[in-house]
Amino acid sequence: MPWNGDCCGAGSHLEQLVAYHMAQCIGTMKLTMSCVNEKRSSERILQSKRRLCKTTRRSTGAHCSHPPYSSRETLPQRNMIAPMSPRPWIVQKYGGTSVGKLLGTMTDSIIPTYLQDYNLAVVCSARSTTKKDAGTTNLLLKALDCAVSDETSMTACDRVIDALKQEHLSAAAFLEYSGMNDGAQYILTTLRCNIVEEVENLRKFLCATWTIGEVSDRTQDRVLGVGERLSCLIVAAALSIKDLPAEMVNLENIVQAAETRSIREQRAAYQQNPVTFLQQLRHAVRTQVLACCADGKIPIITGFFGSMPNSLLHTVGRGYSDLCAALCAISLDAGELQIWKEVDGIFTADPTKVSTARVLPTVTSEEAAELTYYGSEVIHPLTMTLLREECVSLRLKNVRNPTAVGTVIYPTRSPNSSPTRSPASTQLEANMTVLMAANGYDGDKKAKRVPTAITAKDSITLVNITSNGKLPPQAFLGQIPDILARHQLALNLTSSSHQSLSLALSSTGSADLSDAVAEALPDLEEFGTTTVMRKMSIISVIGHRMKNMVGIAAEIFSALASARINIYLISQGASEINISFVVRAQDTLLAMEVVHTKVMRIPGQAEREMSFIRGPWLY
Predict the structure, then answer these.
(1) 487: number of Cβ within 10 Å
(2) What is its EC number (predicted)?
(3) For a tag site, which of 113, 186, 275, 554 has the least CB within 10 Å?
């Protein structure tokens, strides 16, 4: 659906300009005539089939072998979704590379299998066929950058948009097969027309943006939402062609539908409590999804879920489709959220760094959040918080290996958890409790007997500040975050004494870490003398309630000492499930191997004690 000018920005002047240029600067752009003619031809064929069927039934009473499709009808509704069915809901989220490269597996095997026993909602990210950097979302951001650049024409932007259109039309062509019936041909024709329409509307919108030379938060949100819509259109068509009626559910305006407050009030509410803000969207999400199911169709939901107060990308980050899937799961009271990736689940360590790493059958939500923060790409932290509040379990599964069990992230109950659950969801939760107990988590606190996983965060710089006597570290510690934020630096770990303060820093922006630290040093040196150690890594040993494991810290550091690995900073988080320490980058792999084998008790490649000792010839 074409955009209106009131979606483009916060200021009325900008809105009027965008609306004007959309209508006047470039005129009304229509679908290509070939696309329109193809669609009309398909409609005529379908109408002829329908008339033939009616005539046959009147004269002979026989059933027609051709289904009487109309221009608004889909294929026969096999595996219909009944919204009031007692079957539990499962929400599945597929990443961009899965949609781009493994669509056949999704629509031929995975989704049909789950439809046999569950009500299913599918959330899709924007497509990516090669590397994530060359995916649809990055192309859209590139097109937006071109539209606000200093170039004198839209040529560069048009090239990006043309590439985007060709990529998705090629994906649509891939769905075609020999012997397609008229209904399937009509679905494919409609898909092509919808792709062209979406992309050409995008072109008009960016042309207006280029003319104005200004981008608001809502402008960026509107542009990014195109990627998820194109992806969902393709997935819905792929299922419908296979006699599984599906329809895109566009959540792009869900925040506006649920909110009556001003943008400023929304922004304040989100900053105060993002989980509560998102929970207030659940009724609007449920209403829109069930409206699709009322027609017996599988809801294919856009992973982009609306214009947030400060833009979705800035507010949530690139993991917004995970958060959208979680929002759908709590809105539908789903028994489980499944996130499908191209790996078997969460491992005890990065398999590229520790060759003996194993897939974890279960972890808790707190463990998953810590793993995400300290280096493992598991799940968006806000996603885990939202699921934990609502007691919805999350399962990570592999599209390339769909029969594998994957990893279940168990939502340990929080004080704010919802006390009411549907019978189907309660049964799934009971099954999860049995599964967790079978994997070493005991009692309500789900305390595991040994650490669960180890992860590493590279590209760390360690800055030590020794107080000049004017202020103790505790006094100037409050000023540190502002200094770091100005220079696009993130504080990952800190440790302080009466005279000194240690900071483990990483870069938050596109700037080089060394350059950012160098620029921040003059501000930090106002508090005392500084020393800088570059090329460091943070290693985190994570396990639920690990603070209560007597002697675990001694076991970790004794193992590292036996391998002659020096430690430069130690920190245990208030979450009680994480012990982190800083080592030189050159020691990272050895440190992970040592802890993985000796502390987590997972056998390594070599079991001999001397295999971990590094001689002086390696320095």
Answers:
(1) 20
(2) 2.7.2.4
(3) 554
Instruction: Give residue for tokens 């968006």.
Output: 380
Q: What is the spatial distance between Cα 374 and Cα 452, in angstroms, rounded to a whole number?
A: 14
The answer to whether 209 and 147 are in contact (CB under 8 A) is yes
H helix or E strand, kind and range, residue 222: helix 217-241
Q: Which residues partner with 465 through β-bridges?
A: 501, 530
b (16+ CB within 10 A) / e for 47-57:
eebbeebeeee
**Contact partners, residue 165, CB within 8 Å, separation at least 6:** 195, 196, 199
What residues does each domain of the chain span?
89-150+234-443, 453-618
The residue with greater pLDDT, 444 or 589, is 589
Q: Is the confidence at residue 530, as pLDDT, over 80?
A: yes
Determine the 3-state secondary structure of 518 from DSSP.
helix
Strand partners, 166: none
Structure tokens at 60: 């002979």
3-state secondary structure of 313: helix
Interatomic CA distance for residues 276 and 192, integer angstroms: 40
pLDDT number for residue 31: 44
Q: Which residues touch 306 (CB under 8 Å, ≥6 apart)?
A: 221, 251, 252, 253, 254, 255, 256, 281, 312
In the chain, the amino acid numbered 542 is I
Which pLDDT does position 85 carry in this prediction? 55
Q: Does domain 453-618 have CATH number 3.40.30.10?
A: no
Dist. CA 434–CA 429, nearest whole Å: 9
The pTM assigned to this predicted structure is 0.77
SS3 449: coil
- Closest to 129 in 3D by CA, of 157, 95, 175, 93: 95
β-strand partners of 564: none
| Phi, psi for residue 343 in degrees, rounded to 5 | -130, 160
Which two tokens mark 102?
């493994």
Q: Alpha-carbon distance 8 to 205, whole Å?
A: 9
| Radius of gyration, alpha carbons of the chain | 27
Dump pLDDT digits (tens) for 229-260: 999 999 999 999 999 999 999 998 898 888 88
At the fourth CATH level, the homologous superfamily of domain 89-150+234-443 is Acetylglutamate kinase-like (3.40.1160.10)
pLDDT in tens, 371-405: 876 656 667 778 888 998 898 999 999 999 999 99
DSSP 293: H
Residue 328: partners with Cβ closer than 8 Å, 6 or more residues away: 91, 121, 123, 285, 289, 301, 334
